[in-house]
Amino acid sequence: MNFNWIDKRPFYQWVLLILLIALCLRLPNIGRDSLWLDESISYLASQLPVQQIFNNSVQSSHPPMYYFFLKLWGTAVPDSDSTLRGLGVLWSLLLIPLIAQFSKDLFRNKKLALLTALLVAISPFHILYSHELRMYTQVMFFVTLGTWAYWQARHSSDWRWWLLFGIGFGTAVYTHLFANLALFAVNLHALLETDRRKIFPTVFGISVGLAILFLPWGLSIFAESEQELGSLRPLNQEYFRNPIKPLTSIAFLLFGISSSFAISGTAFFIALSFILILLLEVRRLHQEGVPSGVKLILLQIGFVLGVPLVVYTIRPFFLPERTMAAASPALLLLLTWVVTRNKSPLPYLTAVSALLMFVSTASYHFGDPLKPPYQEATTYVVDSLQANDLVLHTSDGSYLPALRYAELPNHLLLAGDPDPRKPIEVYELVGGDVVAAEEVLDRNGRLWVIVALEHSLEWQQAQSDFFAAQFRLLESQNIGGIDIFLYEDAGN
């Protein structure tokens, strides 16, 4: 097919058009879903003083840079879910011209660069996580920025590219732990692709400097891992090895999440086909010589996706696909590059992938909310609250969002969770209060019990049954899967 008409307009005009498309796909439904557990941690962490953010007082498993940016963003915009999530949209939009330029420099092909930018614009994964009050679009932007700066520095003697490389990856590794894997991939690429400029010592030296800067926070996380509770504690619940997780991870990073079996099944089939055919292509290409740019993106995909998945295979642990978000831009770059492969089904798979992305994005926008309606549940309790009422949550899955949405008197979290997400001190730091069931029995006032079954399901159900046996039920509501029970005075 002839695409020469693309050359009739300047490159930046096409990028601006793609940015407009991306904006139109990201603004709708930005505030549709309530904040959930992890997003509430982001919000509450951003409300702390800067020193407590950088001391990791909330014992997050992620570095503090996102919380710091969110704090700055929160001072400039109104305090609403939509405006706060605008930070994720901002990083997602900034990624589009960046990856367009990176792709253009990498492949020296304007049309491929615009295709890469378009795939990011319509990607359901990128749209979904631009609506998430978490660090995933931020880490994707800064990993891409650092990688692009490295690529430019390889072909230039300008020290400013090395400075940008350090800034990009320095911010990335202080945003998400897995950004270190992307940085390691760049070091390996520099080592394998030695040339007369001998760039590996420079890349390695900058990386060592970033490691030294990262060391204080890394030591604090290591110290937490020695505690019974903390960011890196072993999870009490069992996680079983999913043998197809590598495929589901790639499918998720390309096509996002969908409640439609047809979309999910098609995404899985395309991911499987893409991997199998790509392996054959790389084997054939190896005989001809793999281009340096393709080696770079393959290494980043291999480390950011491969290392966590290998560890997962050896010792299963909780590994949500979103934590490997730093691999998504490289995957889309690879998906763009395969369009150039002649006598291969890969270009057709790319076209089908783009179509499926658009369908999955439409499914997200026109489908039901993906997260429990914690704001609606909290509002219901607030509107029905009487003086001296107690509000008790059996899970921080509902408690932390409630702390974001309302300042309630006598607002409590039940102690004793066998798989707690945070130490008691963290809940108290963000304005919460943790009590034992026995203390609740001694307090006066009607008792509200909120049950959101996110984790420790059997324990939560047992606590709910315990209070049901102790008090007389006045009313009950189920709001989007969140059970709300109102009991007679706790002191009776």
Quick summary:
The chain has 492 residues and is mainly alpha-helical.
List the helices and strands and how they pair.
Blueprint: H1 11-26, H2 37-46, H3 50-54, H4 65-76, H5 81-107, H6 110-122, H7 124-130, H8 136-154, H9 159-173, H10 179-192, H11 200-225, H12 245-255, H13 261-288, H14 292-314, H15 328-337, H16 346-366, H17 374-384, E1 390-393, H18 396-405, E2 411-414, H19 424-429, E3 434-435, H20 437-441, E4 447-451, H21 457-470, E5 473-479, E6 482-487
Parallel strand pairs: 1-2, 1-4, 2-3
Antiparallel strand pairs: 4-6, 5-6
Structure, explained:
This protein is 62% helix and 6% strand. It is built from 21 helices and 6 strands. Strands 3-2-1-4-6-5 form a 6-stranded mixed beta sheet, with helices on both faces.
Number of helices: 21
Arithmetic mean of pLDDT: 88
In helices, the fraction of residues equals: 55-70%
Helix/sheet category:
mainly alpha
Low-confidence stretches: 225-237
Order of helices and strands: HHHHHHHHHHHHHHHHHEHEHEHEHEE
Please tell me how large the radius of gyration is: 24 Å
Whole-Å distance between the termini? 78 Å
